Each structure stands twice: as C-alpha cells, then as structure tokens.
Amino acid sequence: MPGEERPDDPVGVFVAAVRANRPASVLALDFDGTLAEMVEDPAVAVPLPGAVAAVERAASRWGEVAVVSGRPLRFLEGHLPAPEVTLVGLYGLEIRRAGSVSEHPDAAAWRAAVGRAVELARESSLERVGIESKGASLTLHYRTARDQAPAVEEVARQIAAATGLLVRPAKLSIELHPPTSVDKGTAMADLASRHPGPVGFVGDDLGDLPAFGVLSGLRSTGRITLAAAVIGAETPAGVTAAADLVLDGPAGVLDLLDRLDQ
Ligand SMILES: [Mg+2]
Predict the structure, then answer these.
(1) What is the average per-residue pLDDT within 120-148?
(2) 208 CA distance to ligand 1 centroid (A)?
C-alpha cells in the first residue's frame, strides 16, 4: 500500500501474532478460486481435498473463521456444514454464525427484482451463458462463452436499468446485485469488530477488494492484519496489487492454513 509502513515480513508477523493469541484472532476466506479451483460450471465447484477439514480445524481454535462469498448460503452450507465455521453468503446479505441463520433486510426487499432479472436474462438473446439465480442476487457466467463478454455486459446493463440492481464485474462473470452498502468490506469489518486480535482475509477476485481495503484501514489503527491474494489464470491485477502475500491457487491457501495451524 503506498504511503504505509509495512513490516518486512507481514506473514511472519501475522503468524506469530496468531500463535500468541489464537482465540482472539479472525480469519476470513473467499470460496471460489480460494478454497475451490475455478471450474467451467460453477454448480460443480468443490473445495480442494483437505480444505474443509483445515477450515473446520481453524474454526475450532481461532476466535472466528468465516467463509465470505458471493455464493448463496445454501450453496456454502452444502460444502461447509460444521456450525463452527461462520458463513457469509451473497457478499454479506446472508449469514450463518454459530449455526444460526440471519438475512440482511435488503435481501428480502430485493428478491422480487432479482426474480424479474432472472426472467429477463432467460428471455435475452444470450447464448451459452450460465444464468445462476442466487435468490437475492444473480450471476451471468461466460467462462464457456468468452466471445459473449460484450453481449453479456450489454444485457446486464439493460437488466440493471430495468430492475434497479447493480452490475458488479467478476472473473468471467457479471453479478447483478441489490444496490446495498453490504459487501465483503462490511462483512470483514463486522468480523474484525467481534475479536480484538489479528485479522486476515484470503481472496482472489474484484469482490474481495473491499475486504482488503478494510484490512488496510485496520492496519493504520495498529491492528495486525494479513491480506492474501490467491493467483490463478484469471486473477485481476488489482487483487495482487492490494495484497501482502500472493498464494498459488487453492493449494497455496492450504499451505497457509497449515502454517497458521502450527
Ligand atoms: Mg473468489
């Protein structure tokens, strides 16, 4: 980060701080591209072998461990059933904490608009584009139809204009999301406010940048933080630029979890 003093070894500082006070420490991780490899059909994305066990083990020892994703809660619960793991779905619109599920008021308010957006996407001229309806949000995937990117952007703009939803670009996909202030940054800030110790976040996409930004702000107040970017073939440049540490795919995330577990 320009203008900020960073320790020479932010990872070593973070690891030492966590080891010294694990019950006060917080770790949040994205799902797709972070715990699970990116796949052509997002419906079949699964965590890397060993990832769920590592996250559950950390959750049993840290103050709090959360998976923070644009996916709906129901998808995340299917892969991470253990209630010790906090789940933040739809960028913060849905939360499961200590097994108890809550929903942000904006989610309920925008479900009808998202339903209309799904209809408009299905009625559109888009071909070979995946339409992922997530209840209170919608994603158009063009990973298997990359030539369709301009058409997807145009249709997303039209749907946004018709429904009031906002367009959020991501890896080879476009999200249509309620115009809410809730994002991974507010989710990260909430998690950090619940625990006094070190706070870390691991992510790989544009939607993760607000969480990195919150960590940067916490660092300026003296908090020990770690922002880790997971790189792969599709990682946007801004993500690695905002991070303290670059990890090579979900396997690199598992290595970090292992190091943090020592
Ligand atoms: Mg991701």
Answers:
(1) 94
(2) 7
